[in-house]
Prior knowledge:
By secondary structure, the chain is α+β, with helices and mostly antiparallel strands. It has a domain at 107-159. 19% of the residues lie in helices and 38% in strands. It has helices at 2-7, 10-33, 132-135, 234-239, 243-251, and strands at residues 93-120, 146-177, 183-193, 196-206, 216-218, 222-233. A six-stranded mixed beta sheet has the order 5-1-2-3-4-6. The chain starts with a helix and ends with a helix. 7% of the residues are buried.
Amino acid sequence: MTTICQTLNPKRVVALAAAAILLGACNVVDRLGDIGTEPKLTQIQNPVQQRSYKPVVLPMPRQRPTAHKANSLWRPGARAFFKDQRASQIGDILTVNITIADEATIDNETSRTRTNTEDSDLTNILGYEGSLSKILPEGVSASSLVSLGSDSSATGTGSINRKETVKLVVAAIVTQVLPNGNLVISGSQEVRVNFEKRILQVTGVVRPSDISATNTVKHTQVAEARISYGGRGQLTDVQQPRYGQQLFDVVFPF
């Protein structure tokens, strides 16, 4: 009830309406500027300098000193005597292979029935059982003083059938090296085809040992992975409901 009252607060409704109008006005100006032209691609920016960027802080193990043996040509972390070409420092680039083929089928059915019955009598109270009618309402009998019963039943069914397939390749930049050596990566890719722009973004944490000799890593090896694939353009605008309809869906409680 409180949530509904807060949702129907006139001040909030007016604020949401004003925000929708301003957002719609900005969108109209952008769309008017794109009439007859393709959507503009985003300029390349430093991910660390973006407002939404936040350094990743994760639990780290204690650092252990690295022991170097005398007259040894082997370098810790290297796979050969030559220079390791895998990403290891801030600004290095590595390729992320995204192959998602998820399929889930869930079918649940629950049925529950419960019946309770309780009877209680009080036939002898030191000979005063006949005086119960004077204290309690009329119609009270000592042989059936308390009688309780309850019935309950519940039935529920649920079904989920989902299938997702995504296969993409994107290059990411190392934006941070954590104290334990793990790499924080961030990658963005934009492709414009006619009047539709497709945007692919990926961020997460990569363990250097998971990076292959060809400087690639699978998306299943990216911890805290955030993968986004969407678009913007004429087709996307047609598929999305208008801002007024979205505002109505949020405000209307029924």
